[in-house]
Write a structure and sequence with these properties.
Layout (H helix, E strand, L loop, with lengths): L12 E5 L3 H14 L2 E6 L4 H8 L4 E4 L5 H10 L2 E4 L4 H13 L3 E4 L12 E5 L2 E5 L7 H17 L1 H20 L3 H12 L2 H8 L3 H15 L1
Parallel strand pairs: 1-2, 1-4, 2-3, 4-5
Antiparallel strand pairs: 6-7
Length: 220
């Protein structure tokens, strides 16, 4: 069973096996979005990968993935292995080794075989959405679903206002209320507070902050 998670990848090691278009997109995604240490193993590399390598941002290992020792050594280094070649035999061997070495892997060539799914994603006002499909449905459907969700959020003025207000309120509460349980209790209370919700729906950040602080002061 695949469990949906958001994982911090800054400083983690990502090995991409395959330097073509798919491998390039995966490598750049983890480099830019996750701040990971990215290494690409391939006999050939795209111009984009070569450019990032010249900047010292991606490590390129030129070698044949059929080389068992080379493959094992690089998989051992990795926290996550991305499979992105057009050679089924190599892809199968990488999966086998990754499983035997207890490494998570994303098989960009097979939705059925992959352990880790790289979804389509978007973010607006701190709300992050990730969409994928199961059962080999279609990446196109996942992308179109994401587009519709993002458009719906952009058009929901009240929800976007509330997102901005909650961000400001949570930031302030973290500064003035050190007890985590007390903060969680306040969040639940505010969620059911009609006055606060009215201010939040209107996007009145300063008024909402003043209201929250007045509630806290009456408790002290």
């Amino acid at each position: 069973m695949r469990v949906p998670l958001f994982i911090e990848f800054s400083g983690r090691n990502v090995l991409v096996v395959g330097g073509g278009g798919v491998g390039t997109r995966r490598a750049i995604k983890f480099l830019l979005a996750g701040g990971a240490n990215v290494r690409v193993l391939s006999l050939e590399f795209s111009s984009e990968l070569l450019r990032y390598a010249e900047q010292g941002r991606v490590e390129l290992i030129k070698g044949d993935a059929h080389d068992e020792e080379l493959l094992r050594r690089n998989i051992e280094w990795a926290d996550l292995v991305v499979i992105a070649t057009n050679d089924p035999a190599i892809n199968e061997r990488v999966r086998e080794l990754a499983r035997s070495m207890r490494k998570f892997f994303n098989d960009a060539t097979s939705a059925d075989e992959t352990e880790v799914v790289v979804p389509f994603e978007g973010e607006i006002n701190g709300i992050r959405i990730a969409v994928t499909t199961e059962g080999g449905l279609s990446g196109i459907i996942a992308r179109r679903t994401l587009d519709r969700i993002m458009n719906m959020l952009r058009e929901d003025e009240e929800l976007m206002n509330m997102a901005r207000v909650w961000y400001a309120v949570k930031s302030r509460l973290k500064e003035v209320v050190s007890d985590v349980r007390a903060r969680l209790s306040l969040y639940m209370e505010l969620d059911n507070d009609e006055k606060f919700n009215e201010l939040a729906r209107k996007g009145l950040v300063n008024e909402a902050l003043n209201y929250v602080m007045s509630k806290i002061s009456t408790r002290n």
